[in-house]
């Protein structure tokens, strides 16, 4: 008896590769860049430190370029939320670096300059508020970061619009809390990789 091999093509679909499976998780980097830069600037906003220029290098290199790169890697991994968040806040820090370090605001009256910066912060607060809605489907740790950041932006915007130093200081302390929450989320991501299991809970949804 002779046998012949069935040469008909298989109807089984080929498994689709996972987007960016070869890439490391960029979220801990993006969160760390955001956290450290926010931490330093927020302490300036609290009024405890009067050295805002120290933030400029961080805003460009770590909060800006490094976080923006994390956003690009999130695109490669197919993560729309992470890509939108990290790319946007990376761009925020680069724009902050340019606005505060390279833009001459002395051509405006003090009130007009404050209102302009207030509008800038308000717009970022609106963006952060709708990203917070999306964050409800990510994790409790990330949601906490976005809730605190929304509060921070709105407090800072009100502080500029109303020229209310106390409100700006409150926004500074809210920013410190935001930075700590972002550091925690970054820590949870890094240690989950190095320990091969979730060491610090993030409230996965």
Task: Describe it.
This protein has 205 residues and is mainly alpha-helical. The protein has one domain. The protein is built from 6 helices and no strands. Helix 1 (27-45) runs parallel beside helix 3 (80-102) and helix 1 packs antiparallel against helix 6 (165-194). The longest helix has 30 residues, at 165-194. The mean pLDDT is 90.
Strand content: under 5%
Assembly of the depicted chains? single chain
Gap from first CA to last CA: 60 Å
Please tally the helical runs, counting DSSP H or I stretches of 4 or more residues. 6
Helical amount? 55-70%
Low-confidence stretches: none
Number of separate domains? 1
Number of strands: 0
Mean pLDDT rating: 90
Kindly name the structural category: mainly alpha
The dominant shape is elongated
User: If you compute it from the alpha carbons, what radius of gyration comes out, rounded to the nearest whole angstrom?
Assistant: 22 Å
Order of helices and strands: HHHHHH
Q: How would you characterize the largest beta sheet?
A: none
């Amino acid at each position: 008896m002779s046998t012949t091999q069935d040469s008909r093509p298989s109807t089984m679909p080929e498994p689709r590769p996972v987007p960016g499976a070869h890439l490391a998780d960029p979220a801990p980097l993006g969160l760390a860049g955001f956290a450290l830069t926010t931490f330093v600037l927020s302490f300036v906003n609290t009024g405890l430190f009067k050295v805002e220029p120290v933030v400029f290098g961080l805003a460009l290199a770590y909060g800006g370029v490094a976080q923006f790169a994390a956003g690009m890697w999130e695109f490669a991994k197919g993560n729309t939320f992470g890509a939108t968040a990290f790319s946007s806040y990376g761009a925020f820090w680069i724009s902050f670096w340019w606005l505060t370090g390279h833009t001459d605001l002395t051509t405006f009256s003090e009130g007009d300059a404050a209102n302009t910066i207030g509008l800038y912060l308000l717009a970022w607060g609106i963006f952060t508020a709708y990203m917070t809605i999306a964050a409800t489907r990510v994790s409790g740790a990330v949601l906490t970061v976005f809730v605190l950041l929304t509060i921070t932006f709105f407090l800072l915007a009100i502080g500029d619009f109303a020229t209310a130093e106390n409100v700006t200081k409150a926004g500074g302390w809210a920013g410190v809390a935001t930075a700590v929450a972002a550091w925690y989320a970054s820590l949870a991501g890094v240690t989950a990789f190095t320990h091969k299991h979730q060491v610090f809970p993030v409230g996965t949804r």
